[in-house]
Structure formats: C-alpha cells, structure tokens
Amino acid sequence: PIGSFYLLKTDGIFQSQEEVLAHSKDGVLIQKQAEPGDIRYVDYNGDGKITVDGDAQYAGSPFPDLTMGLRAGLDWRGIDFTMFFDGTFGNKIYNHTRARSEQMKEVQNFSTTVLDYWTPTNTNTDMPRFIPTDPNNNAERVSDRWLEDGSFFRLKTLELGYTLPENAVSKLRLSRLRVYASFENLFTATKYKGYTPDLGQYDGVFTRGVDVGRYPIPRTYMMGIQLDF
C-alpha cells in the first residue's frame, strides 16, 4: 500500500572475518568495506552488491491493522468515575530520532545505548562497532534496523468525581457542587523505543509513521470544582 516502508533488510552483525568473507557472490565480497562488528545486509536480488533500488523489501506499513477506543464509566451515590483507553495495533514506525542519536559519526551527543557497541569481547549486542568513518554505512543506510513496532495501548483519560448531596449544597445557595480529579496519559503499554508511539496525523501519506523527533505527550494531573447556581 501507498506510504509503506521499503527498506534494506539486516541480518545481524558480522562476528568474525570468516563471516565477512562468506558473505559473497561468486567469490566477490558483497560488502567490501565490512569488518567484524558491522551490520550484515541482505542481498535481496542476488546481484552481489547492496543497493536500495535492488535490495529494498517491503518491511511493514505505518497504517494500523486496528485502531481502538474504549470508554467505561460508573455513577453511584454521587461518585462518578470515567476512563478512556485508546490504541493502535499492527503499525510500524521508522525511528529516525534513534537513527540520528545512535549513528556514532558526527560530533554530537549520542544515546547511551551506543555504549553497548560491538567489540571482540562484547559480541552479544545489536549495536555495531564504534568507528566514526563508518565505511560500511551502518548508520546511513535506510534499513529495518530503525523500524519498530508502533502498536500501543494507552490509558488516555481518567476522571474521578464526587457530587455533594442537594441538601448540603442548598445551604450554600448552590444547586450543584462537584469536585473532581482528572488525569491524562497515565500510562502507555508499547514496545516502541521512542518518546511516544502516537505520532498523530500531522504528516503526509509519504512520511506517515516516521518519527523525526516528535515531542512526547505530557502526563497531566488536574483538580477542579464545578458549581451550578
């Protein structure tokens, strides 16, 4: 479908020079600049080289298979309680923010996740070796390394209120008095590593699902009083 992600597929990290040499076509290395600790890319069309035009594959869609909302409420003896859940399931997010903060090339602040980079004594990691020149293009290639599950389930709103009895508020010359506490975005269940999986509808169809630094949705707490005269 339009707007889907077509990306290079990754196949782990080269753990030895033997693995680098084995990744070849007719005796010619597919990734000529690769060394142990670099990302291994899938030569999808089998032409012996890695190119976006020839090797990009369908990797997922930013459009969810299911979008849901669930509202529940209770009203009993002056106590009212409402909550609203929302979420999406089956969509993908290209985490460009992580791609920038984990690229280890430019002089800038990096994510702390890069501290787990590959070394001969630290091979159980998905973070490639640290090399500023990046001859293998571990960072720059548009690959499924940065594609994540964007599904989430969120408690969007929660409100608890209490309406005082009429005989109590009538003495205050009021017809109704209600006190309440309201909360927004209390928790989000998701596997997404970015600030928020809810990227909203602000972008176009060709950039939907691409996180370029979306500001996190704030968690808010409010208290209030409603008066009817």
What does this structure look like?
With 229 residues, this protein is mainly beta. It folds into two domains: 5-60 and 103-138, no CATH class; 66-94 and 149-228. The protein has helices spanning 17-22, 52-55, 96-101, 166-169; strands at 5-7, 10-13, 24-25, 28-29, 39-41, 57-60, 66-76, 79-89, 92-95, 147-149, 152-163, 176-190, 210-211, 220-228. A five-stranded antiparallel β-sheet has the order 7-8-11-12-14, with no helix packed on it. 21% of the residues are buried. The model has no long low-confidence stretch (mean pLDDT 92).
Please provide a brief summary of the model.
The chain has helices spanning 17-22, 52-55, 96-101, 166-169; strands at 5-7, 10-13, 24-25, 28-29, 39-41, 57-60, 66-76, 79-89, 92-95, 147-149, 152-163, 176-190, 210-211, 220-228. By secondary structure, it is mainly β.
Q: Which SSEs are present, and which pair or pack?
A:
Blueprint: E1 5-7, E2 10-13, H1 17-22, E3 24-25, E4 28-29, E5 39-41, H2 52-55, E6 57-60, E7 66-76, E8 79-89, E9 92-95, H3 96-101, E10 147-149, E11 152-163, H4 166-169, E12 176-190, E13 210-211, E14 220-228
Parallel strand pairs: 9-13
Antiparallel strand pairs: 1-6, 2-5, 3-4, 7-8, 8-11, 9-10, 11-12, 12-14
Shape: elongated
CA-CA gap between termini:
56 Å
Number of helices: 4
Tally the structural domains: 2
**Rg for CA atoms:** 26 Å
Q: Which strand order spans the largest sheet, edge to edge or round the barrel?
A: 7-8-11-12-14
Structural class: mainly beta
Which consecutive residue ranges, at least 5 long each, have pLDDT under 50? none
Strand content: 35-45%
Overall mean pLDDT score?
92
Helical content band: under 10%
Characterize the main sheet: 5 strands, antiparallel
How many beta-strand runs? 14
The arrangement of helices and strands along the chain is EEHEEEHEEEEHEEHEEE
